[in-house]
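ERR on first pass: missing label on line 2. Operator R.T. fixed the label and resubmitted. Corrected input:
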Amino acid sequence: DIQMTQSPSSLSASVGDRVTITCRASQSISSNLNWYQQKPGKAPNLLIYAASSLQSGVPSRFSGSGSGTDFTLTISSLQPEDFATYYCQQSYRSPLTFGQGTNLEIK
Amino acid sequence: QVQLVQSGSELKKPGASVKVSCKASGYTFTDYGMIWLRQAPGQGLEWMGWINTDTRNPTYAQGFTGRFVFSLDTSVSTAYLQISSLQADDTAVYFCARKRQGVYVADYWGQGAPVIVSS
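pass 2 clean. output:
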């Protein structure tokens, strides 16, 4: 199975900050990497697919980059509603696997 | 708009079975597969597998064979997850999600169905 490792596992930041979350795959997955946001008690929400494509309806402050094994999710200017847990997921090969999550908290 | 509405919370005893439903609306049900995922309390997301809503062919991830069954009723645009011989470690929230065409991307999600297994 392809292992996905996110860093950091948790992060404290302030409204207006620029934040970057990293995801590393245990082998090359080309651009088959997706990012989800999950708020407590809610279902995850797709933010970015194919490493850098913004899902319809997602604010443009979210962006993704990377290919191969190393990927990043960037939030350009944190808003109060962005405090949540973020997951990366590889869609290169079955079984689909997720990172362990990054919990973004208010500083 | 695309919506996936799941059945409600379930409390079951060990050894029992449960059937979770996921009713889709806002798109042609058989044009998109349905993914099932599990999230144990305080844990991350785990892919259980998916079902092709056109061919009805299910694919199960390792660890989700035998006791887990994906099924469909296309007449009412609904997917089902049945779990038999429930164990305490099946306690989790179960999500359905629409599979984007041609790729393993979960683009729309149900709200989740909590299943608690306790004697």
